[in-house]
Structures are given as C-alpha cells and as structure tokens.
Amino acid sequence: MTGLGVGVRPSRRSRPVTDAGSASFRTARRLPPVPLAIVLTALTAISVVSSVAFGAEHIPVGDVWRTVWAAITGGEAERAHSIIILDLRLPRSVLAAVVGAGLALAGAAMQTLVRNPLADPYLLGVSAGAAVGATAVITLGVFGGLGVWALSGGALLGALGATVLVYAVASATGGLTALRLILAGVVLSAAFTAVSSFMVFVATDSRAAETVMHWMLGSVAGATWSTVPLAAGVVAVALVSGLLLHSWLDAYATGSDTAASLGVPVRALRIGLFVAQGLLVGVLVAVAGGVGFVGLIIPHAARLVVGATHRAMLPVAAAGGALFLVWVDVVSRVIAAPQEMPLGIVTGIIGAPIFLLLMGRRAYTFGSAS
What we know:
This protein has about 375 residues and is an all-alpha fold. About 65% of the residues lie in helices and about 5% in strands. The protein contains 14 helices and four strands. A two-stranded antiparallel sheet has the order 1-4. Residues about 1-30 and about 365-370 have low confidence and may be disordered.
C-alpha cells in the first residue's frame, strides 16, 4: 500500500522501495514516467492543434496545421480561417490543456494534503466560494466596472475568500489537521452553496439560474489569449514546486509522524500545500468554472501506470489531465452541436465509468479496504 493509501498490492514480482519515505512498490507492469510524460505532452500538443478543426464550422485538419504553421513562420493564411483558428479556437484548446493539467495537479496535491484518495480539488470549498463570487456578479452585477473580467474577478475573489475562511476555521477549531480541513471545507462548501442558491432565488433576472448553472459546470468557451498566461504560469509554478518537494510529499503521504521523524517540516509543508492548492484552484475556477472529475480520476490513473511517488506521478498526471480535457472540450462542442455542452457534464459521463474501472482492478486498492 502506498503512503496515500492508494497503490498496487505487492505481487510475487514486486519488491518494496525504501527511499525517500516511500512505501510504494515497483512492479514489472509500471511504465517509465519520463518517456510516458514526453509522449503524453507530444500528444497534447498535437491534439491542441488538431482539435481546432472541430466546431460549428468544420475546418480540415490540414488547413488548421497550415494556418498555425503560417502564424509561426510569418507566412500568409486565409483570413477567415486565421480568425477562427488563431483568435477563437486555438486559445480555447490551449486553455483547456492548461486547466486539465492544473486540475490534475490540484487533485494530486489535495489527496496528499488530506491523505484521502477520494479528495478532489474542490473538497475545501474553493469552488463553492468561487460560485458565490460568480453568482454575485451574475445576479447582483457587482464588479461591473471590471467589464469582461468581472466574472473571473468575482470568482477568483470568492475562491480566495473561501480559502482564507476554511484556513481560519480549521486553525481556530484545534489546528490545521487533515481531518479538520476536510470538515471545515465540507461544512463551509455547503454554506457557500446555500448563499449562491439564495442569490439565484431572489434574482430578478429569470435567466440567472441557467447562467449560474452553466458556469458552475465549467466551460472554456470564453477563452482568449489574455486569459491563458496567468493560468499557465500558476500551473507551471505548481508543477515545478511539486517536483522540487517530491521527497517531502512522499514522506508526508506516509503520515505526519513518519514525515516529522524524517526531518520534514510538517506544519510548514501542510500550510504551503493548502495555500498553493487554494491559489491554483482559485485561478482555474476563475477562468473555466467548476470542472469536476479531472482532479479526482487523473491522479489515480497516473499512480496506476507509474507508481505513487510524486516525482513520477506529477508530470504524468499533468500531461494526462491536459490531454484528457482537450478532447473533453472537443466532445462538448460536437455532441450537441450547434449548442455547447458544459465540460462538467462530459467529464462526469466519461469520468464515472473510468473511476469505477479503476476501482474494479484487482491490483488497485483504496486505503486499507480493497
């Protein structure tokens, strides 16, 4: 069993790994993480460009690649295709990849922070807090002076406010332990949802409920090139930080007492993980809404194929999350065309059977129960 309580049972061909506090096991079926991450990243890059061909107006994949290549090399391309591909669809696909990678990293961080394999990025009420901010913008018109940034700004402030409140409540009620974080997050998440529902209930705009629901289920339809850099920067910092601290994370995953005995500053690491996870999820929710299931299933899938050590798992999870959400966005565009389906519906339809499939694997265990 791994330190996260999620791993592969030792088989006759397995042997325990004793480095860096990890209790995971290597098996002959594990894939090498570096080549796998490189392959997934290459597939994501190819998918980002190829996915631009799908939409209300179908564009041949060859024209997409010629337009993108012309933009890179300074060549000429058909203007109509150039606007659709470069200004509308490509930033959307890039943002989908960034959000997918970020949610996978946030899910991995959350599962390590609370040492619970069922944790997802929204467990601590960050998404519900963001929903309060977004609902206030939609129903009350607050932050109207921010123009097109009002919704994202309100969601980000709501997410950060929820993060601070959960931290304060957990700290004030006995300390920043995993159990208190979960309890505070679940309770405050319910309270934030009630506040959002109240604002929708008393709203005078009859379309407010539909708009709020669509935002909460997630979408990258409003992506522009200006929304990509902040999200990409935060995700990159999260990935690099996770890789730099991989040995501490492996030790913490085995238990706080074990980590402390190995010299890990447990309290500082716990606070750092909490703050980083809150910032990461807050930014992602602000630009794409609440996209579920990615942060839950992708880290589990990554552990299954490369093992539970964070140095191996984090890059594979990030690349896998990016690839997954790029094609989820494609499905959301074509499955009910000309309308677009929210990402959360597609990830739920795809993610639930995948998660059940993982649960059904004989070699995969959750906690102490098989």
